[in-house]
Design goal:
Elements lengths: L15 H7 L25 H8 L14 H14 L3 E5 L2 H10 L7 E5 L4 H13 L3 E5 L4 H7 L4 E7 L11 H9 L4 E5 L4 H4 L9 E5 L13 E5 L1 H15 L5 H12 L1 H20 L4 E5 L9 H7 L6 E6 L2 H11 L4 E2 L9 E3 L11 H7 L5 E5 L5 H18 L1
Parallel strand pairs: 2-3, 2-4, 4-5, 5-6, 10-11
Antiparallel strand pairs: 1-7, 6-7, 8-9, 9-12, 11-12
Helix pairs in contact: 1-3, 1-10, 3-10, 4-5, 11-15, 13-15
Amino acid sequence: MASEKKPTADPANWAPQTRLVHGGTLRSEFGETSEAMFLTQGFVYANAEQAEARFKNEDPGFQYSRFGNPTVAMFEERIRLLEGAEEARATASGMAAVNAAVLSCLKAGDHIVSARALFGACRYIVDTLAPRYGIGCTLVDGRDLNAWKKAIQPNTKLFFFETPSNPTLELVDIAAVSEIAHSIGAIVVVDNVFATPMLQRPMALGADVVVYSATKHIDGQGRCLGGAVLCSSDYMAGGLQEYLRQTGPTMSPFNAWVMLKGMETMALRVNAQVQTAGRIADHLAKQPGVKSVLYCGRDDHPQAEIAKRQMSGGGQMIAFEVEGGKAAAFALQNALGLIKISNNLGDAKSLITHPATTTHFRIGPEARAELGIGDGLMRLSIGLEAFEDLAADLDAGLAAARKAA
């Protein structure tokens, strides 16, 4: 590939919006404007000596798309620049990123302390999968700093949490929990999906590793799956790189190209969604039949002070509970005409789901009750539609819910 001319400024000094458009771009000899898509499984070598040098890491070129690919490398560099991390690796999905970030640095006999408020699949990894391999786990109320301290064991190696949490929007004080973890030499892994890199910077607050489901806001248009792990060079060399290379949770070049296109508009999309989400949350709070509304940008959020301190916006996720339990929640969803029923989030389209029967069904009724996931709780992901249209659609859904309650 032909080398690109030097940029007029150091990419590390660019504003986030600029990094999202130009970061990591590599151009071939054809000088294409849009990033090239390298749909190839492998790469050829000029001679046997070069092949040997590639596998000995003495030559920086590509070997095999499971190990690295030019299009995937562009995505990795772009998100690395955006996050301000030393290293980034793309994965096939968000859960592949979580699994790799957590398990690559642990072994039998180690111990995890994790917030209990997690996406169902994340909870499965730390609370079910890891123990099968001899890795202990203690779940705590992530809001309680003393709970983190009390859960520490002599073999504790890793703290894991998501903030805001899925779906109840609980917050974890990233700086305070990171300080607790680092006092014993433990690694802090943060799932930053709900906040997005536009609204929260966990590494700047003390986290060691950040994971994303690129499927959500990074693509942002419901097209394909992807994930990313961001970390230090030491963490990468300490096990993550080899884990990814040998187990193969690889992002495809096509998906990486889609993610690159999604990143170009992410700042605009997230900003617009946050503005609308705040208005929708306020609207819902005034409606009859709505028992409660949780939104990180509202002053009545139980942890509003933390939200203001570590997030630059309220996000585009809303949790609200309707009177009448499951019957009312189902009636609300079935009456919607614009907002779609889907367990995805971060899309250009507004999406709603009933966590108790979808994303958190498998954790069981006791765990749901502990997390405050009642039968009337709804998770709403705000898209790019007009506020007036979304409000009217929700009003129709709430009318149906009241009748069913």
